[in-house]
Amino acid sequence: IFTGILLGPNLAAYVPSPESFVMLGEIGLILLVIEAGIDIDLTTLKLIGSRGMLIALVGSILPIAIAFVVAIALDPTNIQSAIAAGACFGPTSLGIAMNILRQGKIVNTPVGQLIVSAAVIDDMIALIILSQLGALAGEVTVASVLVPIVSALAFLIIGGYAAVFILPSFLDRFFYTRFKKENNGAAGLALMFLILFAMMPATYYAKSSFLMGAFLSGLVFCRNHDVHVRFVSQFKRLLQW
Question: Residues 87, 130: contact at Cβ < 8 Å?
């Protein structure tokens, strides 16, 4: 962080093509969110589902409300800035959380699954609030307010249901049967990235988050051990970097 401050545009202005560093960071974040989807343990998640939802709601709404109240107290006339201040405190960094959980080897424990599920829901709440901030920046219409909310919820509920209950059985019947057993992991990994390349622009242009598309792409293969092993073996060093 200090190196970034010293070499950044405000001081040395040394960093060439800063957009490329942003892109590298986003690629790393996308891979971490895919891993979060693949690492979801559905059995454990069923046991902690309600607690995960409760923790996510409290963990996002409480800091947003506190920051909003403080900002209003400082400047009662600027509602939009107060919403922005609140939204800054809402998200949980799923990327950082996944990195810490993976290093501690507790991703697939009840606590790890609780943190991952809460972080995903938490981020969706914050993204919905941020989307409302974007809607308030321009001409406020019913569509600009409702579309981001409906889109995020639709991808989270309908997309999550399809990823967990519909697509895996479809792939087992019509996709993996076309390959040798030992090649199922590689075929599934290739298909996962094809789904990713479709889901990321779909979620982005639907006013949701492209990270939601990455998470759902990994979630499709959370029950497939071969794809999980192949993903970890192929991307372990890259994710560490």
Answer: yes
* Conformation bin of residue 175: beta by default, left when phi > 0, alpha when psi is -120 to 50: alpha
Helical segments of the chain, H only: 2-7, 18-38, 42-74, 79-88, 94-103, 110-137, 142-154, 160-161, 167-174, 184-205, 210-219, 225-240
Model pTM score: 0.74
Q: Which of 21-35, 58-72, 95-109 has the lowest mean pLDDT?
A: 95-109
Encode 96-132: b = buried (16+ Cβ within 10 Å), e = exposed.
Answer: ebbbebbeeeebeeeebbbbbbbbbbbbbbbbbbbbb
Token pair for 45: 């998640």
pLDDT digits (tens, 9 = 90+) for 127-140: 666 656 666 666 66
Q: What single-letter amino acid sits at 64?
A: I
* Helices and strands: H and E segment counts in the chain: 12, 0
- 33 CB burial (10 A radius; 0-12, 13-18, 19+): buried
pLDDT at 81: 82
